[in-house]
Amino acid sequence: MLDTGGDVRESLPAEGDEQSAQRVLLTVAVRGYDDDDNAEEFAEGIDRQLEAVRAWWTTPGPLLAFRHVDPPQLRHRDDVEDFLREQNVRELRGLALTVFITGHGIAASADTHFLRLPATDEKRPLATAVRTADIVAAALDSHVENVLVIVNTCFAGNLQSDLAAVHKEIRNSRLSSCRIDVLGTCGLKTKIEVLRFPTLLQAALTHLRRTAGITTAHLSVPEFMSEYARGLRPEDAKKFKLQHLIQAGDNEPSPCLPNPGYAHVPGQLGAVERWAPLSAEYWLDRATGRPQENDTGWYFRGREELNRKVADFLGPRSSRGVLLITGCAGSGKSAVLARAVMLGNSAFRRTPLFKVAEDISPEDTIPAEGSVTAAVPARHLDAARVAGDLLDALGVTRKKVTATADPVAVWSQQLQEYVRTCGQTVTIVLDGLDEAQEQARIIGDVLAPLAAFCGSPVPAPRHDEPFDTAPPAVRLLVGVRASRTADDAPRAISDDDPGPLHALRKAFPTARVEHTDSTGSRADMGLYLEALIGDALDREAVRELVPRVVDVVWPSFIDARLAGDQLRRSEDPMALARSEDWYKKTLTSGIRGLLQCDLHLVEADGLPPKTALALLKAAAYAKGQGVPWGEVWPAMAGVFLLPERLDAEHWDQMIEKLLGSRLSGYLAHAVEDDRRVYRPAHEELADVLLDPHTDLLDEGGPDA
């Protein structure tokens, strides 16, 4: 995620804890084989390897940065042993140790592998070379919790027998309490090609940063091996793919392997750190009202009375209850909830962006610090996923569910148990309930059982609880869509109304309902548009333009955002603002007209409209939370581009252009299976993209 006005870094450990949290990158690199014909070329290749390794292991993340130990000149076997002693490798303590060994290797007649040094006599390897397994053993039998060794030498596969013996000698207590992995880059009889490793490593780094979309801060060893192998031709795979010589036996991310594609999300600390992956970004996008992900502004304006009611609900005077934020599609329900989530978060309050929001907001509209315990976007989630995500957000480890058990029942019961025993008010924010799967189960089986904790009477403490335990209490703040009424009044409960708002009001009869689409929201939309386009037009032009746009697009704040972005990006904003075609052909058609206009405008940026539309349609057709980049998005988009075809590299270029263009505002981001995925920013947009009768390329927008 790009900068949003200030990054919040995880606090470094206290001085006494720094040793246990340290991470070390140790390189044992041998060059200076003066007698070799290609000595100079080999030395340059070793330097390239070290550059690639440093680039990978300097990736920033939430843990302490790696301490890099630069390799000394290693000419004799004593130099290697001295180096291991000086660095205290055998007694090293810490969280992670990554060792990279590179140079020429010797495959002896026995099942032994030696690291060849410039002073080595190949006829006397026992006396003049170093057994590679001895270097590996020093790392494996240290006190570091996680160890990864990568051996990039000729005949590295010949280490297998040596390492099997070493593995047996490692004490059982260490094997059961740490993770150790050893990788080799060559087979039994393969000589290294000195530039192959840095080339493959750099290609993997680029792929992870650009297209892979892996969202975890660290990679698992199998993921690292897979990314490395992507650049190998099939005929080279057997000789040069990474060999797992010793493996920890799990697929969990390793602190030894930073993910170069990891994006640190500002504010993802404290309570936010426990929310679902990238949910901090979800809330930040909606709270700011920013048109693009790389925008650093805070554009939320107005809604003061509604924000005041939300802040009061989340304040100390309200210890329990249910507040439903409702309105028609696109009327800003998520923005109101997201503003409360972000402004009440302790970590976000330490960013410059919070100061911007605070300066333009009345004090009584800002929620109390730490007022939200858990926040979950429910779009496209089923009941089990909502219950599980709520537990994750609360920092509760989900119970394992047997094959015959119902995860919704198990995790809902666990959620209720947490509320009963945590000793504090639990405040839950749930957004997009109307866009969730299994809405009835989410309301009936996950939320409704919390009703007893949302109001009086309060359940009595259990017999095994102390009498002075705080009464269990829950505050629910839920965003849910509903159609508008002529008088802006809350709809009466009717058995003929099957919608989620009706179900929520039956489950929580005393719930308060607030609307985002009352006529007063016209003025709020005007303030929002002024904030969006204030830098693009002079004040008088803004006063003239804003009411006209609001009259056309209200009550859809999504349409207002897209219209404002078109004005901001236009080469001549005034000409566009005074274009009758823009109002009649684009704005009056809502999100369909705005998309049509933007599809034609991106052609000037080198993104063909047909290709852009194919990518957007693929995102709309994707199941679950969205479509991942990798190979999946191009493959799906290719179907919509037929009979035209693009190769993989061309598709990656087009996706890169799409995500950097005005069309990125039509996409939202989520995470599924630790992969960043993309989907239409709103259900209304998805409906337009999925409509087989709508030709979005038939008409263009006005010149901008």
Brief characterization of the structure:
With 704 residues, the chain is an alpha/beta fold.
Written account of the structure:
With 704 residues, the protein is α/β, with parallel strands linked by helices. It is built from 30 helices and 17 strands. The two termini are 29 Å apart.
Sheet with the most strands? 6 strands, mixed
What would you report as the Rg, rounded to the nearest angstrom?
30 Å
Principal-axis shape: globular
Percent of residues in beta strands: 5-15%
Average of the residue pLDDT scores: 88
Number of strands: 17
Low-confidence stretches: 1-16, 265-278, 457-461, 700-704
| Count of DSSP H/I helices | 30
Share of residues in helices: 40-55%
Q: In terms of structural class, how would the helical and strand content be classed?
A: alpha/beta
End-to-end Cα distance: 29 Å
Please state the oligomeric state of the protein chains shown. single chain
Strand order of the largest sheet: 2-1-3-7-8-9
Features:
disordered N terminus; 30 helices; alpha/beta; 5-stranded parallel beta sheet; single chain; about 700 residues; about 40% helix; 6-stranded mixed beta sheet
Task: Please give the structural blueprint.
Blueprint: H1 18-21, E1 23-29, H2 39-57, E2 66-69, H3 77-86, E3 96-103, E4 105-107, E5 113-115, H4 125-128, E6 130-131, H5 132-140, E7 146-153, H6 159-169, H7 172-177, E8 179-184, H8 196-212, H9 221-229, H10 234-240, E9 243-246, H11 270-273, H12 279-288, H13 304-313, E10 321-327, H14 333-343, H15 352-359, E11 374-377, H16 383-393, H17 407-421, E12 425-431, H18 439-447, H19 451-454, E13 473-481, H20 500-507, E14 512-515, H21 521-533, H22 539-553, H23 557-569, H24 573-577, H25 580-586, H26 590-601, H27 609-621, E15 627-628, H28 632-641, H29 648-659, E16 667-672, E17 675-680, H30 683-690
Parallel strand pairs: 1-2, 1-3, 3-7, 7-8, 10-13, 10-14, 11-12, 12-13
Antiparallel strand pairs: 4-5, 5-6, 8-9, 15-17, 16-17
Helix pairs in contact: 2-8, 5-6, 8-9, 12-14, 16-17, 16-18, 18-20, 21-22, 21-23, 23-26, 27-28, 27-30
